[in-house]
Amino acid sequence: MFRQVAHRLLTRSTTNHSACAAATILRPYSTDVSTDASSGDSAFVEAWKKVAPNIDPPKTPIQFMEPRPPTPSTLPSKLTVNFVLPYAAELSKAEVDMVIVPATTGQMGILPGHVPTIAELKPGLLSVHEGNDVKKYFISSGFAFVHSNSYADILAVEAIPLDRIDPAQVQKGLSEFTQKLNSASTDLDKAEAQIGVDVHSALNSALTG
Fold it and tell me: For the packed helices 187-208 and 167-183, what is the interaxial angle rounded to 10 degrees?
């Protein structure tokens, strides 16, 4: 009996996995999905009318979205970057030559025509290159979304221009957290001190590199 049940479960799991794999392969990129802001979410509107036919349906998020730029047939000369923080937009549709982000796997350069990628970001240096002009930021963490149409969306929890950071304060903080790490007696104290050491070490590397 156990073998029969196990065989059924394994067969069902394999079938479902194959279906999911096929769906993943056939799934279009986000830039291939059309965004018709005028029509909105037709399924939502139809469902709303069935429940409240005398009340106009509220607007859905899709109605506030701009149409996605299509994937170009030729390699564009510029990378379009959106660099967003919870409280501000540092860059909005800025056309640049390259962006280098501190991914958890290492520094990652993003050029026009980059393959679609999602990268988790760690504390480190983010640089935006446009000709001879280079803007540098220190970011705490976040994600970078690279799309097939040479658009890159960079979302950071915190970011500050590198030229606004005081090197003396960084060295002071690194020394203090190193002492806390050496004297920590609990796992919580060690974890908090280690985070401080890692962040200040990344700050120091960004300033001296």
Answer: 150
